[in-house]
Description:
This protein is mainly alpha-helical. It has helices spanning 13-18, 21-71, 79-103, 115-118, 121-124, 129-186; strands at 72-73, 76-77. Helix content is 79%, strand content 2%.
Amino acid sequence: MPTYIPFKTNITDTQLDSIDIETIKFIYDQAEKKLKDSLQSGDSIKTRSYNFIALLSSLLIALIVYLTKEKIVGNKIDVSVFGFAIFFILYILIVLVILFINVLTKKYLGMGVEPFTIFMQKYIAYTDAKDISRSVKYIYTTQIEKYQDRISLSVKSNEYCGKRLNAAIWMILGIIFIFFLYLSFSS
Length: 187
């Protein structure tokens, strides 16, 4: 009876027969650990983005309150301060948009596979021990390949999110530097 392959795999029967099940299980466990690590890293980047969004939102609100309370008296507006404040507000809004891209839910990369995908009657029907062993090895190897796909997607997503977070941090540091320059020259 031919071996039933639940997913497309790049490993031939000959290659699969030459690898012992313990080696395959070890690789599977390592792939699972790497995916968990990568998903936790992505969660950490999202958490830092949320914290930075909260900080910037508070800063934006404080700036708007300060401007409306201190710098706009009646109908009289200090144009230089107001112009810089508008620039500052727009700049913070741009940084907030960059950070919101990080926290928007993208494709969820879950752990494992649904049981019905693996547990099929064709696996139970085998009577030849070699076919049963090969089927178990195929299950593990296809899951290893799926883990690798998820790991690659997660790492790529984490790289983009990390770059956006770093860019946002540098942008805010830059505007703070410009703000202090403005204060030193406006006095």
